[in-house]
Design a protein that fits this description.
Largest sheet: 5 strands, antiparallel
Shape: elongated
Number of domains: 2
Protein name: Helix-turn-helix transcriptional regulator
Oligomer: single chain
Pfam family, one: HTH_31
Radius of gyration: 21 Å
Number of strands: 5
Number of helices: 12
Length: about 260
């Protein structure tokens, strides 16, 4: 059964830790009107629902959910990546991935499932169990699973804390039950190293590196994350491109030599 729109607005406002007054001021409506919406005494207009979704900083998927709960059609499409209208998006992603070689890069969806990757990503998955590389391939599971990349990650405790922190914040941002289940699963994986609760830099540290053993050679990477800047489609909004760069000259030379 679908929750009423007012209940959803109140849930998201509480999750964002925004008072009714603050949201009313931000969305330029009266607190009385917002209160009536939340209690179901007033049905918001379509424009009002979209405005509330914007000022609550909701993902496009959740804005559509608000609209449906209020009795309106979704405003944002959700196209299959293989659809003809997504050809420009696919081309842009492939150009970005190919241009990043010989450094690893991957594209993931909202659930951290692998959508596409460049050929250099194979360097990081070389020793991974084939079972984990059978679709859908979840990159967090591949990274932290004991049959995945975990045995080759030299700073597993540190990298694990970094990834679980990102996923935890994503769960808080989206309230996605699939991601919440994934977080619970990953927390159950073994790790012999200390896992810091808070990422505190040591002397000279400017990022959390991924220190990885490849064929007896220690490699060090830092990563960047990119998203589409002005998405109006749910699928496009949820695509994330993660690119890895060498964190020292020795790693850069190893990658250039292939």
């Amino acid at each position: 059964m679908r929750a009423p729109v007012g209940e959803l607005v109140r849930e998201w406002r509480d999750r964002r830790r925004i008072s009714q007054l603050a949201l009313a001021i931000s969305a330029d409506i009266s607190t009385r009107h917002l209160s009536f919406v939340e209690t179901g005494r007033s049905r918001p207009s379509r424009e009002m629902v979209l405005r509330l979704g914007e000022h609550l900083d909701l993902p496009l998927r959740e804005r559509n959910r608000l609209l449906l709960a209020a009795g309106y059609a979704p405003a944002y499409g959700e196209s299959e990546l293989a659809a003809p209208e997504m050809a420009l998006v696919r081309d842009a992603v492939r150009r970005l991935l190919a241009g990043h070689d010989p450094y690893p890069a991957a594209v993931v969806d909202r659930s951290w499932n692998l959508v596409d990757a460049n050929r250099s990503l194979a360097l990081l998955t070389e020793g991974v169990s084939p079972d984990l590389l059978t679709g859908p391939v979840n990159v967090l599971r591949v990274t932290l699973h004991p049959d995945g990349m975990a045995p080759y990650v030299l700073n597993l405790g540190e990298w694990r804390a970094h990834l679980l922190g990102r996923l935890r914040r994503q769960v808080e941002q989206t309230a996605d039950p699939v991601l919440s289940d994934l977080l619970t699963e990953l927390r159950g994986y073994p790790c012999a190293q200390p896992v810091p609760e808070v990422e505190i830099p040591g002397p000279g540290d400017i990022f959390v590196p991924l220190r990885y053993r490849h064929r007896g050679t220690e490699l060090s990477f830092f990563s960047t994350v990119a998203t589409f800047g002005t998405p109006l489609d749910v699928t496009v909004a949820e695509l994330v491109i993660e690119s890895f760069y060498p964190a020292d000259p020795a790693t850069a030379e190893h990658l250039r030599q292939g």
